[in-house]
TrEMBL record:
Organism: Prunus dulcis (Almond)
Enzyme Commission number(s) from the entry: 2.3.1.20
Residue span(s) of domain O-acyltransferase WSD1-like N-terminal: 100-251
GO BP field: triglyceride biosynthetic process
Catalytic activity: an acyl-CoA + a 1,2-diacyl-sn-glycerol = a triacyl-sn-glycerol + CoA
Cellular component GO terms, alphabetical: plasma membrane
Name assigned to this protein: diacylglycerol O-acyltransferase
Keyword field: Acyltransferase, Transferase
Top-level division of the source organism's lineage: Eukaryota
InterPro entries the UniProt entry points to: O-acyltransferase_WSD1-like, O-acyltransferase_WSD1_N
One example GO MF annotation: diacylglycerol O-acyltransferase activity
Alphabetized Pfam families for the sequence: WS_DGAT_cat (PF03007)
Length: 295
């Protein structure tokens, strides 16, 4: 890979540096399901070169250190190094391929990106599963951006089925909140923030109990993980959101924490009363509708 000498390198954000260190390296996976088999050769390389790479300069950059500061440096991208096509046994049932993909995702989640190349990969799994004829797996390092911006990057590379010349559009969020409700929610949010800060401060002074999600063993980051998939109806999530007067983030956060607690109880009933702490990364932007990445 030949480096391009560019002036005025873009600095890596504090979050980007935090998520890319010797102690912590965070990446996430996104899976797109296709109703038809995926063209593995010409179409994939064409889309990566002409649609995906131009979306963001960071997709063509590596992280370098200059005078103690990390910066993004543009490089020449060899697409063949970023496109992976796994081979599974042929003529299996869709449910069998479901298991193969879950295992493949588990393997990807524990692998670090190689040094000296842009921090993304695309994996094409062209085997029929229970939900799709093929799957495209995107793996991004969190230093490239947060979930909202990278989701916007993926959406920007898609086209409308009815008219590819038109940009994607989504229904705008309708807000009919009164001024009184806004003031009430604002003061409530401030109070909750103070309460959460105080609770977090107390948590720092006390170590979590040993539970199924905290074994106390060393080097657990190098152990294999297991991916399991569940499907939830967006209509059900919206119904809960409206009934309780909360946001989609609130509903999803509650589902994840409740599911984690149920898992702990299933493994060890006594852990239902254990003290434990977890962290979840969610989008907190006050954006009512879809905004194109270039904006």
């Amino acid at each position: 890979m030949e480096l391009e000498e560019l002036e005025g390198l873009e600095p890596v954000s504090p979050n980007g540096q935090y998520f890319s260190s010797d102690a912590l390296s965070v990446s996430f996976l996104a899976v797109l399901e296709s109703e038809i088999p995926i063209d593995l050769e010409s179409q994939s390389m064409f889309l990566l070169k002409n649609v995906f790479l131009p979306i963001s300069p960071r997709f063509s950059s590596i992280m370098v250190e200059n005078n103690g500061k990390k910066e993004w440096k543009r490089v020449e991208v060899k697409l063949e190094d970023h496109l992976h096509i796994p081979t599974f046994p042929s003529n299996l049932s869709p449910k069998s391929y479901d298991k193969y993909i879950d295992d493949y995702l588990s393997k990807l989640s524990t692998e670090r990106f190689p040094q000296g190349k842009p921090l993304w990969e695309v994996h094409i799994v062209n085997y029929p599963t229970s939900n799709a004829a093929g799957n495209i797996i995107f793996k991004f390092h969190h230093a490239l951006g947060d979930g909202y911006s990278l989701m916007g990057a993926l959406i920007s590379s898609l086209q409308r089925a009815d008219d590819p010349s038109l940009p994607l559009t989504f229904p705008s969020q309708q807000r009919s909140e009164s001024k009184e409700n806004f003031v009430t929610k604002t003061f409530s949010a401030v109070g909750n923030t103070i309460s959460d800060f105080w609770s977090a401060s107390l948590k720092i002074m006390k170590e979590d109990d040993l539970t199924p999600i905290k074994s106390g063993n060393d080097a657990i980051e190098f152990r294999p993980s297991t991916v399991s998939t569940m499907t939830f109806s967006l209509d059900q999530i919206k119904s809960i959101k409206n009934k309780l007067g909360m946001t989609v983030n609130d509903v999803l956060t509650g589902m994840i924490f409740f599911g984690t607690r149920l898992y702990m109880q299933e493994i060890n009933q006594s852990s239902s009363k254990a003290d434990c702490t977890s962290i979840m990364l969610i989008n907190t932007r006050l954006i009512g509708d879809y905004v194109r990445l270039r904006r």
